[in-house]
């Protein structure tokens, strides 16, 4: 009975978010040729707010943030590197971040109707993996531009959604960018799979914990050594936030 109720609520959330996101996605696409990133980001912020608050009201998915005091408030360059367990955090960070974000994402997302069309219109940074070294050079150039605009770059270092209680391979793209630009790295652990498991359509009521770590300076680090610090912090926090799932996976 509980799972059936969660399934029905998840369908209602899908209807809600489609009713909001489809018009906003079309607005993004139509506005992009004539608008700067600030207006486009404002639309994306509405998108994120409607999605996560809709999930809160309809599905009972709440959130709790710790460590917000660690976020820089003085305009310093920063790259956010976050655990990635579900689409929830992709939407929630757009809604909750105190500073405009610029996602680094794979170009293949452009093929997803509405969502992909919208993200492709938002003047963010996409990676064309067929270009290899040239692709990263483009990321560095665009990352420098974005940070001059007082935006934070955000990446998911494991590259894809990771199942609850599991650890993926942490790739050094984000720390390479930090070392190239002199930016600090902000590690974030997030336990969204407790409410929205990987591969599941159903959203379960509960609390998603977002734990923001202290910024880590890139100076004096190699991309590998910096990523080791990021991974160590994120994974230790994940074990604290969701100890039950990690002990079950041993």
Ordered list of secondary-structure elements with their pairings:
Elements: H1 2-31, H2 37-59, E1 61-66, E2 78-82, H3 87-96, E3 101-106, H4 115-120, E4 125-127, H5 133-148, E5 152-155, H6 173-181, E6 184-190, E7 206-212, H7 223-241, H8 243-248
Parallel strand pairs: 1-7, 2-5, 2-6, 3-4, 3-5
Antiparallel strand pairs: 6-7
Helix pairs in contact: 1-2, 2-3, 5-6, 6-7
What does it look like?
- With 250 residues, this protein is an alpha/beta fold.
- The protein has one domain (2-248): Glycerol-3-phosphate (1)-acyltransferase, CATH 3.40.1130.
- Helices cover 48% and strands 15% of the residues.
- The protein has a 7-stranded mixed beta sheet with strand order 1-7-6-2-5-3-4, with helices on both faces.
- α4 (115-120) links the parallel β3 (101-106) and β4.
- α1 runs antiparallel to α2 and α2 (37-59) crosses α3.
- 36% of the residues are buried.
Kindly list the characteristics that best describe this protein.
250 residues; 48% helix; alpha/beta; Glycerol-3-phosphate (1)-acyltransferase; single chain; 8 helices; globular; seven-stranded mixed beta sheet
List how many beta strands DSSP finds. 7
Tell me the fraction of residues in β-strands, as a range. 15-25%
- List the quaternary state of the chains: single chain
| Highest-level CATH class | Alpha Beta
How is the biggest beta sheet arranged?
7 strands, mixed
For this structure, the CATH topology is Glycerol-3-phosphate (1)-acyltransferase
